[in-house]
Amino acid sequence: MAHEKRRGDNAAPNAGTGTATGPALELLVHGVGGTTPAAMLDDPRTARISGDATAAVYRRAEDVDAESRPGDYRDRPIREAYVWCNLTSGNGSRALWLLLLPFMVVNLAHWMRPNALRVTRTVRLYGVIARLTGLTLTVLLVAAACEVALDLTAWQCAGRAACAAHHRWLGFMAVDAHGHGGWWSLPGRRLGLAAVVPAGLTALLWYLSHRTWAAYESQRPLEHQPEPDDGDHSTALRRPGFWYGRRLVSRLRAAHTAAGLLTVAAAVGASAARYDRRPGGPVFLDVMGRVLVAALLAGALLVVGVVVSRGRSENRVDHDVDHAVVRALPYGALALLALTMVYAGWSRPHWHTSGRLPGNAAFGCVALVQGALVVALAVAARAVYRTAPDRRTVLRGFGGPATAVLACALGGVMTGGVAQRVADWLDGTDHLIAGPPPLLSWQASVIPPLLAVLALLAAVLVVRTVRRTRRQEAQVRVDYGLHDDARGGSTGGEPPDAARTRRIASTRARAALTDRAPTAIGITAAVTLLLGGLAVVGAWATGQVPDTAADAAAPVVDGAADTAQALGSWLIGIGFILLVTLGRRAYRDPSARRTVGILWDVGTFWPRAAHPFAPPCYAERAVPDLTWRMDTWTRNTGGRLILSGHSQGSVLAAAAAWQLPPSLRKRVGLLTYGCPLERLYGRWFPAQFGPTSLTTLHRQVDCWRNLYRLTDPIGGPIRLPGAAGPQVDHPPLLDPLAYGRTEQHPLPAPILGHGDYQADPAFDRERDRLLARLKPGVPAQAAPADPPGTAG
């Protein structure tokens, strides 16, 4: 409240009106891939005026003291560049975050909720289901680590003298041919020692989540009064606490860490408790085992309760701390794990290992729970979509459930492939161990048929792209005024070039593939769900069919299954090698680092609301940076500013504008180019960037102009309904600027696609129009009509 009062006392006298009393500021925000301040400001001499090495605002050296020389900037704006590329691609080791891809994808599914007329129980249920789906991915990852370390290594291989003989590093806990060994050879002690690996993995994920939060997302946003609901059902991006999810991330981090440790404890203690329930064993061990099992179940229920509890607090910046029970949850789970390790390590002379570690049915249970959650998420998404249907929303509201399917599939395939590869490495071709649970092998086997479906889908897209290219060739000739029997005109004296026409048309056709992505992802998700269900059925049938019946199965079917499983496990191994190689290259090669950064620019824009171990959200640093800069500058100078955003920078610019108080928002103009606000974000995240939200933003800012090209695979029009559409969207820019050689372009003009929008004369023209509205004493007015011939 005090902060809001201070802003009101110091605001410019005519804040929120159509005039300005101070200078104009042009704040540039770059897009994916990053750039340098010198390139953005077109000057090699730049100076950092605010920020740090991670993200900062720069000016040209001669503009550092611009506010003290207002007379020099009456006819031109002060230019600043906000550089945020190091938030995503500054450190090459961040490429290893690709291994956290399933967590990032399920977090995206949370934000893909369809738009709703109001917040209802179904809307809240959607968020709860998404968080529970994220929890199953954590359990699956830790269970896979337990499978590799506890089952395959400590239980099976170390328990077989022939297998341990091939791996000398297992000698200290291996048994000999007579079943005897050293102190570590007892099954419970082997399991307790191997449990250090999955427990360490859980601790590493907790540490990374805590450290990245402190480094990236702990920036406090600009606090202001929440805006009243005026009935327009606009985005939650304008709420004061949207970009500060500290409490939720802390709560989920505690719950997921506890879930991981409880999973390890269950893997260690389940076999010992099962052995102690046999008649004739020590009573106190049986009682202790039952008590530990009950404690594990109670801990699991507590974890689920914490995950399904209240979600994000967005109407205010939430500085509260969760209850002590929530904060102590990981420590309680760690203590329970320690007790379980002591219990399992108790001497049991007659306890020997054989077959697989008991509890392998847990993978089937996780798969079934994930399937049920995905179905429930689809039902909730459909119910929400029906309240405010929009045909531009991907898959008619099923985009979130489809993405959740892909997240679960990624987790299952990665865990199944790793387990299968480790089993092959430990066992070789000797068949000395039972191997991983059947479900993991079946999950690896679905990769070849899934790749075959993807190849067929790619072939269909290629055919459609070829057909679209042919249709676009005629449109290219129309756009550039070409005639087969004419010379001169817009071609500058050259006849039409079939290769040039085809190249332009092909670029346009390939750029249009972005609009085919929803259909491709929907088909992939449906096939993945079907194959996943078949894998569960196949694993169950394999475990139920007697060996004699299995031996009588058709050799062709048996051979095909074995081949698919082996090929799938090898493909997973190759995939992991490629990921690690990419990470190592990104550490040394700046161009590769920028490529990896582009992936995270798209995937980590959203806060961690469904999974705390997902890569950090860079927007929780970038949006407060931009908002604080705009707020302090406008209050201190009384001027107005224009936000100039390219690509992902346009998304950050819109998010920052939403975070401003309404009085300051009216003094901001938007210039976006290569903008994915509607084409990607509006379709995939309609609850935040849907047509209603973008229309409200257009109405609340001073002015907005958007530039795009048909050759741009990322940017596109904003598509506001009614008269607002032409006011915002400039007609598509011609790309290339000239078809042939002209006096202005004596050399062939390149096809720019998504980059270098400043090279088009329309960019300067539209920027000048917006800046003219920001001059002191000039009232706000509608932008003039575009001159003829500026677009095709």
From TrEMBL:
Signal peptide: none annotated. The chain crosses the membrane at residues 125-145, 191-208, 254-275, 287-308, 328-346, 361-385, 397-419, 439-463, 520-543, 563-583. Residues 1-23 are annotated as: Disordered. Residues 10-23 have a biased composition (Low complexity). InterPro entries: AB_hydrolase_fold. Keywords: Membrane, Transmembrane, Transmembrane helix. This is Lipase family protein. It comes from Streptomyces beihaiensis.
